[in-house]
Model the fold of this input.
Amino acid sequence: MLAKISFVITVMALLNLASTDIGIRTKQSVGVKGYLMCDGKPAADVRVKLYDIDRVVSMDDKLDDGKTDARGYFELSGATREISTIDPKLYVYHDCNDGWKPCQRRFGIMIPDKFVTEGEIPSRFYDAGIIELAGEFSGETRDCIH
Done:
């Protein structure tokens, strides 16, 4: 069983490498913007990251990261090469209503495929709208190393 798993991983890795060398993977980009609030007030200086989530063998690709401004506004974009459509996900790391608990609260939002565009620069952005951080999010975790 272990030999079969190793074989599959090796084949996937070789296909990934070969697709890069012969240009099968297309350059795709994505952008996301929005506002973060904590108890109705702008959540400034909150860490946000944009990733391409890889569901098979390779590691997730970080496309961009940043922090919200004084208004709680953020805007991230990035590009990567993949054989299939990329799976972009926004991660938010915050301390809204967190008291003295260690680390930060972390949740993610998948960005719909229709906001993935061909090329280096996204032609449209996913508008996440106004996100209130005071509540608890589905799948929320704590993260100390980000």
The chain has one domain: 25-143.
